[in-house]
Fold this protein.
Amino acid sequence: MITPRFFLLLAALVALTVPATAQSVAEQKVRTTNDELIAIAEKVPNNEVLMQKVRPVLEKNMSFSAMTRRAIGPGWKTFTPDQQKKAISLFTDLIIRRYAGRYTIGERPEVTYKAAATPAPGRAEVPTVVLYKGSKYEVIYRLEQSEDWRITDVVVEGVSFVGNYRSQFDAQYQKGGATAVLAALTNAVNNP
């Protein structure tokens, strides 16, 4: 006989499997992205080519619009649509340049994945340990789901990419609004 208790148990089991599925899908997204990036990095002759080759992978798997919006903070709402578009483009270039600039051709990172967590519906965190050039780094990938899971922040040794840029952009915004932030982004991209 099917009782109300049975339905409660069934509902609880379904609720428990959804986050686990979200965790595994988010973790797989990070694994696949890292595997693609490492495979590309092993085949390129220099960092300029690396930047060109990793761009499509990063654009497919990261939400640069969400990252830019959060990095700029409350001032984002005062940007015109054209300024927002330019900020996203510049921030994307900056992140890709920084990624490629920190990679040494011929050095392969080893990535160990820990259990992913879902701190809220539609959000996941995938903690990893990266062994690179003899040093060990704790790296957490933060993802959000819209139509697909996308990386929205990377936290290295407790320092958030987005949070780090937010403090820099806040200072620029206070000095001169959107124009000052765009000038700082342009300068950072053009003078690595």
Summary: Residues 3-19 have pLDDT under 50 and may be disordered. The chain is about 60% helix and 20% strand. Residues 4-190 form a domain with the Nuclear Transport Factor 2; Chain: A, fold (CATH 3.10.450.710).
